[in-house]
Amino acid sequence: MFENRLRKVYKHFAKIARKQNIACFRFYDHDMPEFPFVIENYNGAIHAAEYKRRHGMEEEVHEEWLAVCRQIIGLVTEISEELIFMKVRQRKEGKDGQYQKFDTLKQERIVPENGLNFIINLTDYLDTGLFLDHRITRSLVRDDVEGKRVLNLFCYTGSFSVYAAKGKARSVTSVDMSKTYINWAKRNMQFNKLYDEDKHEFVHADVLQLINDLPKDTFDVIICDPPTFSNSKRMEDDFDVQRDHVMLLKKLLKAATEDGKIYFSNNYRGFSLDRDQLPVANIKDITAATTPFDFQGKLFRSCFLLEK
Q1: Could you give phi then psi for residue 260, rounded to 5 degrees?
Q2: Phi/psi zone of residue 187: left (φ > 0), alpha (ψ -120 to 50 degrees), beta?
Q3: Domain ranges, ordered by start, for the chain
Q4: What is the pLDDT of residues 127-136, one digit of tens each?
Q5: Which of 30, 75, 21 is nearest to 48 (CA)?
Q6: N or C: which end of the chain has fewer CB within 10 A?
Q7: CATH architecture designation of domain 127-307
Q8: What's the pLDDT tens digit per position in 201-250?
Q9: Does the domain at residues 2-91 carry the CATH identifier 2.40.50.140?
């Protein structure tokens, strides 16, 4: 059953990816409850994450089952098993859960996207370093920032920052609470030969504290993709995106210039933007417009464009 399903979806998504010249794409996402994987192709390497569940198998039997699944994935994709990386992904509260170190191995690769290149890591962490669902959003930002001052909050590995630099932004400030990801973001900028120390700043800080001190009317474009929930020991307070998004966005609006824009997204299923509490001229729900072909019908993030 798993092989038949994989053959169908892989053929379909790989064909579209080739036509659109896309090297990294998702082709399986919980399609069958018996095989709860998210499987993505990163330019010829496979990242397959199994969500932890009560499967009732002994550890040894589960390992054998995973090995068979890996063989099937290799058979269908015609990719060597050496380039198929299997992980077990636990459902954890907070952003830190998905960013914890996974293994002592290291398998970095460079993958292309829209004329840029990104460093991904298929072994060390539960996520690879490049969120494929924001492929279109990144392009929107690139096309919207020429000559503008950009602030990228919760920047992760800086893919939005790289796109902004490519789009000839006047300046790009990238902020994240993780030193690992701030360094990764800078490496991505350097690898693309875009880094300019006079234009590009990488800040290791708690975003929720930093936004209290942002200068008013400073940034033309702000990108903000916060965690659904976080109670990291490095933060002074916990954060809940549904409860706290109005507070967050009001502070960002103060930091935005008169004609400033905020690209705001989050992964909370059922998220509801409290529009009435936000003093903005225009709010556009761009969720559908920024959903790539390989996430249609299976993407639960929201994405909004707020125009001050």
Answers
A1: -70, 160
A2: alpha
A3: 2-91, 127-307
A4: 899 999 999 9
A5: 30
A6: N
A7: 3-Layer(aba) Sandwich (3.40)
A8: 999 999 999 999 999 999 999 999 998 988 755 556 788 999 999 999 99
A9: no
